[in-house]
Amino acid sequence: MSRAMFIQKDTDTVETMCAKAKIAISTIEILPKGGTRLVCLTSEDADQARVTFRKSILDGAQPRSPMSVSPSRW
Known about the structure:
Blueprint: E1 4-7, H1 11-21, E2 25-30, E3 36-40, H2 43-52
């Protein structure tokens, strides 16, 4: 099962709820059309997040913002 999920809540709310449920966050990002992309640190954390956010999880792929990547030094 994936550690990533799309949640129909703002990032501050997601971070607060994750802290209360002791869910470790690997990555969190704002989605351009609203909501949050959450990637949990472990699969166990992801399972807990699915329970915590069960009514707010968005189905399917969601458009994401292009992220700027620093040029490689190689």
